[in-house]
């Protein structure tokens, strides 16, 4: 007797709610400081990334991590290699997160600066130090529309090689690993990329990045700065419609398409969603509550 995929048979709203189960979100210390009580806006146990912007003191990062951990959230601080001065600084950061906030999960990435401030340049180097060997979960960055800082436009050789290395690391490690992606505004590049990864032999789950509700102008600014690729066309087309220009853009369409794909392909690498709160943490949290 065939096993019925119950999610596949659900209406779109039900599929979307299922896909948003376990959704993660991120904050920065300065935005977190504006939230009086995270337990009032996010479900208990939500995985909260803490973005480390160059110049942010480690004390602000660890204080934010402790506050979130004390609130019952799973804390996942960023470790951007190119803003870390040296090996000793990396070890200090790891030790402080563990001792001060009980951190056991982290996102390792190269980071946005094109020129490293020190000797570290990639998430592979971070993994090779061994400082994260005691962590329960590690995530690495994925770029469904390419990363021009690593590969020339339209090419993927270097990022593909790096993901194969990280997959091999995951295979020999007891650490749970996943790929969290840059945000996209169109489901197709995400789906095509995940299917290509599977053909490459990648088995790490993909947490699909989307931008939370925000003004169109804000999203376009961030998309250009972050190197978002062809899916930027979704925003550019919307910007031509003056009736929509001033309305907040919500990720419902891309999330609904990803949810439908997941319902049709339950074994896909695409596992869940990750929200970048570009229009504010409270707006994104409210969107998750309304649709989850």
UniProtKB/TrEMBL annotation:
This is Methylenetetrahydrofolate reductase. It comes from the Bacteria. GO terms for molecular function: oxidoreductase activity. Keywords: Oxidoreductase. InterPro entries: FAD-linked_oxidoreductase-like (IPR029041).
